[in-house]
Amino acid sequence: MRIDDLLKPESIRIGGTPPKDKADAIHQLVGLMAKGGNVRNVEGYERAVLAREAEFSTGMDGGIAIPHAKTAAVSAPGLAAMVLDEGVDFDSTDGKPSTLLFLIAAPEGEADVHLEVLSRLSTLLIDQDFCDRLRHAKTPEQFRGIVAEAEAKKLEEEDEKAAGAAVRDAAGYDVVAITACPTGIAHTYMAAESLEKQAAAMGVRIKVETQGSEGAKNVLTAADVASAKGVIIAADKNVELDRFDGKPLFSTSVTRGINEPKALIDTILEGRAATYHAEGAGHAQAMVGDDESFGHKVYKHLMNGVSHMLPFVVGGGILMALSFLLDSAGMGTAAYGHSTPLAAFFNVAGNQAFSFMLPVLAGFIASSIADRPGLAPGFVAGWVARQGYTFAYLATAMDADAQAALVSAGFFGALFAGFAAGCIMLGLRKLFSHLPSSLDGIKPVLLYPLCGIFLAVLAMMVVNPVMGAINTALNEFLNGLTGTASVALGALVGGMQATDMGGPINKAAYVFGTASLADAPAEGSSIMASVMAGGMVPPLAIALSTTFFKNRWTAEERKAGVVNYVMGLSFITEGAIPYAAADPLRVIPSCIAASATAGALSMLFGCASPAPHGGVWVIAVIHNPVGYLVALAIGAVVGMLVLSLLKKPLPPSELRPKTWTR
Fold this sequence. Notes:
Structural class: alpha/beta
Shape: flat
CATH class of one domain: Alpha Beta
CATH architecture of one domain: 3-Layer(aba) Sandwich
Mean pLDDT: 80
Strand content: 5-15%
């Protein structure tokens, strides 16, 4: 397949009405693509291109822009092109307007043969003379002729390059590199071409592995790495680095690979790249060129924990819901979910899955920050956060009242544990770097786990009492809100259920609710009803949002959202935790608003529950069940609307199924 096969005359425009801005330029390019018959959903494709552009600009130095998207809205691979007299601001790195624009359309679910062609075009655009000739083309046919001529020459060069590869492999390389971008269509290959051309001009032997959509090409061998003076990583996605253990390594963005190849090569040749050590942090000192923002790093670490935690939440939540569904004998009692052997089995299995949730969250946050050495300290710190161990507990461990000294740090404690453990391991790695090299072998098996676990547990022992103090203050405050403030109290305890999803604030409200059952008359406790309503609504609000506002959620989140219907109806607030962890600034306030609404309405409608748990499965024992269901429905809808308004629609590329969930 050639570029000619993808670039049709009707999809090329020379001159014409200049676009007003980048968005208008993309709109006009999409129109040209549609004329070529490559798009089945024009609006969907345009949204995908704009979403891809929002990640980072495809405007390049030299007046070039290559917007692109891979989406199901594309029916067949294709190209569109525009040559502009005045140019348009495409947020290029050199700040100059783009006058030569190519739009790439790549379909999903088909063989990626066309990606080789698209990558060839990307490398051709590195040649300034080629670009100038395209700008001076008078007709679409002449434009295509220039492309065809340059492509034929490029293919000859590729054949010559392949013929000489064995000779170069035998001689070894001065520098090896990897280029990669999120979509793997254009920037990956442009960076590789730029590095190879610059190396040739400098007389430097280089081998570049490209990790594009069609898979890794020109893969670096162990011999390639061993002979090289150092490694360049020009990538905007995670790249496995273990094979470069002990080599000088410089990591930066793929854009710098395109625009600053000489600076990157000089960094290796002049010995300015730090040595990478695989047993250390995934973002080791070697990665001094990383342009990734601090916020994005935190987000990636957080999502690593959430994605590993999700199966425990889903599996445990469904099993617990089944225990309530099967336990009609215990309805209305504190043993609900445990009073029959079958129900108890499902409840125990679900609770055990939940018990791993916070340690897994903390462990994989820490491992994302510090690689494998962070896993053990993170897990243990997460468990200590969950169990609530304190120095006071240690002092009374043999006493009968030792359990009173346990203060669970909950969900936020596990977040703190994960990041603290990861940062501790980074500090230990830096500290132990001063030890003799003869001790390198015992660092990952002895020094890191021993010191890391010790320091992480010590940190949590300090944090847990702080959470306990917050719990005590909240309980005292709640006990002062009675009588005429009942509706406000309902809103408060309901909202507290959504504040930290099973953490100390949530537990404070729940304990307050269950305590109210001790003195409640036969009709039950209105406080307990508000608490349970507040705990049911967050998963329901999220489930409704994933159902009716699908473009706010990834495919994996939408699938997990169905499970939240069951969790919400079963009073398992923890079903909302993965979503709250992934986007706390939007999800948590929305859930608090929903829970506060449901709790206030439950109190206003005079609902009361004699059961401390069970959710909708105990509706038969709740007084004013109709009012209670109305309160739940209104609260869930309020949460859905607030959450869906706060969250922005996702790029179409994120709406498709992936191997990982956000």
